[in-house]
Structures are given as C-alpha cells and as structure tokens.
Design brief:
The protein has ten helices and five strands. The chain is of the alpha/beta class. A five-stranded mixed sheet has the order 3-2-1-4-5, with helices on both faces.
Length: 269
Amino acid sequence: MKVSKSAYYDWCKRPGKLIDAKELQLRRRMKELFKASRSSLGSREMMKALRAEGFKIGRYRVRRLMKRMSLKVTQRVAYKVTTKRKHSDAVADNLLNQNFNPVAPNHIWAGDVTYCRTGEGWMYLAVVMDLYSRRIVGWAIDKTMTTSLVLRALIMAYNLRRPPKGLVFHSDRGSQYTSARYRKQLNRFGIRASMGDVGACWDNAVVERFFGSLKHDWLFKVSQPTREQMKKDVADYIRYYNLQRLHSANGGRSPVDHELVFKNVSGIG
C-alpha cells in the first residue's frame, strides 16, 4: 500500500473521530441523493437538495464532504446534431430568439429529438418541454426517427395539458418538424410553430441541456443491453427529472413543484 511502518503506527495511535447522529444523518442523506441521481449531483445541486430538506449547509462544506466520501461526478461530452431539414418543406420564423423564460405554463413549449444507443441498436427519443417549468410534458421513443415519433410526443403533451390556442412550439428545422403532416397537426391544435436554425444548439439550449443530463447523468451510468431496457430507463429518468431534480431557473424547485407554486400564487387551476 506504499505506507511506511512509522506512518502506520502513528495512525494506529490516533484517537478515532466520533461522528454525532446529526452529522451521520447528513452524510447518509448525501449518499442517498447522490445514488438516486446516478452519481450526477454536483456540489451546487447537492447543497440545494439538502437545503430543501431542511439541512443548514453551505457549498464549501458540501464540496468538502463529497470529496471525503468520494462522491465524484463525471463530465459530459459535446453536443451533436441529430435532425436535418428537408429543403422542400416550409420553415417557420423564430418567435423565441433565445427567450426561454415565459411567464406562465403552456405559453411556450420546445421539442427536439436525440439518439440513444443500446445493445440491439439505436433508439430515438422525441420530447416536448414546457419552458416555464422545464417540465417534460410529452415524449415518445422508437427505433426509427420519423414524423410519427415527434407527433406522438406532441399528442401526449396536448392530451396531458390541453393548452389554450396560441401556444408557441419551438423546434429546430429537422424534416420531422417541417413536414406538412406535423404542421397540419399544429394547426389542428391551434399551436404556432417557431423554429431555430439547424445545428445552432443555443436556439434550443434548454432541451439540449435536458438531453445532456439524461445521457451523461443517467443512461451512460448503466448498461443498456436492450431497447426495452432503454425505454424503461428513459421513463424512470423523466419521472425523476420532473418530480425530484432541482433547477436554478425554477428557484431551486423541481418542475412539478414550480408549477404547483404558480398554481397556488395565481389561483389558476
């Protein structure tokens, strides 16, 4: 172990450091939160989660304890483009211009598609996010990336939320979103289309950030041997993300809790 005899005997003579019940409870909870996040909680997010549960703790102490308990987060990799535009399809104007902070739920939704690798081949995930709370309100996953995939995610979101007419749906210019079939469905629902440019990840940065969290904080942490396992794991993460994961944009609340606060304050059911 590359330890000298003198260092070993010196260590044996040191008195053991007692940890009181409160400190033990804190460390146990930190381990539980870190495990529940699949080792993705950094010191800032860990501090917010602990404070939300009533612990009085600062980031410096959280960072020190995480280092002592070997709670280490792995880094993410860069963004890659998945969708491509079919140039014969119409393109909507960019109604957002990178304004990702609507004042209420069901004002602006955003959607995109990403790929997920399994032992049986690729899976493609389409999501719809409400930008007010960052909540995933619709999603679909399949082994092909088609217009039907993004339509299923949109229909799920519409059936769950029943938004008022005039809601804006923002996406990139991928062929799935520019297709006549998709635009026709948006018109039926009374939803206005908004599109950023292909490859400009900052035009849909919030959804790209969700995909980064999904993959690098969750999916890549365990083996994904089958498409069925991938589908289940994606559903588990979306549940965790919506109900438990805290967001700075939400004042340190989960998407669901942030919407509940809006509902209580505004009185809107």
